[in-house]
Amino acid sequence: MTQDGDQRGQGIPGGDDAGSASGTVFPGPARAGGDDLVQLIDASGVRHPHGHYDDLVADVDGAALQKLYEDMVVVRRIDAEATALQRQGELALWPPLLGQEAAQIGSGRALRSDDFVFSSYRENAVAYCRGVDLADILRVWRGNASSGWDPYTINMATPQVIIGAQTLHATGYAMGIINDGADAVAVTYFGDGATSQGDVNEAMVFAASYQAPVVFFCQNNHWAISEPVGLQAHVPIARRAPGFGIPSVRVDGNDVLACLAVTREALARARSGGGPTFIEAVTYRMGPHTTADDPTRYRDANELEDWAARDPLARLATLLDSLGLLEADYSDSVKAKADAVAAELREGCLSMAEPVPSDVFRHVYSAPNAELDRQQDHYERYLASFAQAPQEGPR
């Protein structure tokens, strides 16, 4: 069993089949601090009924399950292609999301277009759900830009590398939603390690105080780089939020249907004036923290093997197969879609125009700025001086 996770109460209770009776964490309004894990599809691909959450995914028929599966296959292929690009020297760094596809796709597909996402650097599957241009995912990691995309084109802020800072941004945005009288929701994604940062806790203080329409989505992937979650959290992370007055829920983060259900509920609560919700999606980082990391130096291979048996794609594939929805034509079309997306991603990376030195002055201010213009003029004249310098002749 997982050494650092399950022994300290952070893993999936009861192992792979825990979800058959788990999960009345929100028996209507969210209960503060429940430890049960919401699970609708177990690791064996068996669909378990749930009196409350079934209603929240009643519209998810076979075709919708197939679309969720396609999404996960595609983003896993994006992740693999980006990792390959980094290994080939085309990217400086890449943060893999392998193993976390269900948490990101399930929650990402629950969002409305006017909701606004504030993420860390690993939520590339959420960006895919928001309709990001594929090349924009890679701009920062290739070193071609300070940020990847215009946040307002997809209603998703560019990835935040400062651990936990995005939770403050999300809460502030949610407070603005209240002032605007709108019913959109801010959603912020972060990892288990971020919950030890002051920013996350301060964000929850403000969110609870102002009943801001914000969803805190914690992907507990069991490792904050090389630190196991059991070292920093001796009880389930979801228990922390009720101390701030925020209802919380733990969900099987490898179950895309359950992640969809709990996120839909949290969004509905926020839209109706019920304030924030904290979701702990219990999942696992199958790969390294980034491509600069070697997890074999700190992680037991047996732990990785245990979690590989809970793979989010495999369990949904098994369920689809049992429903007769994984036939060859469909599987071939999914593979073709994933290959096409990967090819587009690679082409977008390799054809990306190199930035020019003066690009550093772009997008600093939203309006013209005389001081910045002065600095740019001085910088460009400085660069031009090198081209005008006389060439030294042979000695």
From TrEMBL:
One of its GO terms (biological process) is branched-chain amino acid catabolic process. InterPro entries: Alpha-ketoacid_DH_E1_comp (IPR050771), DH_E1 (IPR001017), PdhA/BkdA (IPR017596), THDP-binding (IPR029061). Residues 1-29 are annotated as: Disordered. It comes from the Bacteria. Keywords: Oxidoreductase, Pyruvate, Thiamine pyrophosphate. Its cofactor is thiamine diphosphate. This is Pyruvate dehydrogenase (Acetyl-transferring) E1 component subunit alpha. It comes from Arthrobacter agilis.
